[in-house]
Fold this sequence. Notes:
By secondary structure, this protein is of the alpha+beta class. Helix content is 32%, strand content 32%. It has a 3-stranded antiparallel beta sheet with strand order 1-2-3, with helices on both faces. A hairpin with a 3-residue loop joins strand 8 (164-165) and strand 9. The mean pLDDT is 80.
Amino acid sequence: IGEADRIALDGGVASLEMTLESPDPEHRRTWLSHRVLLRGTDWGDVIIGVSKDVTEQRQVEQALRLSEKELRLIWEQSSDGMRLIDREGNIAMVNEAFCRMVGRSREALVGRPMWCIYPEDVHPQARAYLDVIFANPPETPEVHFFTRSDGEQVWMEVSYSVLDVPGAGQR
């Protein structure tokens, strides 16, 4: 007797999923979802089972996981420094190249305002520029002179893209 049968015999509803392998190339792998329950009837106790083919759903989930993994690899392995900021100017994500560029750790950046990498005397201008970026992002890259946290001065080419992420707003 299987686990699903035991749960059903105890009066519960058991759910399980199984994968079937087939030599048929068109139906190489099929995922089935099952729900099993035990019910008393006028004829005695009966086990009711419902099965559903969830192959398409599992294939879509696998493709999404692969796509997310590829995007993470592109983000993390890019030689270009990248940061993602929310509408309020808080840093939501940075890649390792950005951390190296500004001389700060990911932990020192994520969750902080984007202007935290600049000297305090330019924070008001950086905050004001955020509104400009979201209203009308520059179409061509800009060159900024930047002083890293270790005092080294570097030139950076900066490009902006505003993303309107459903459920997350503009970034």
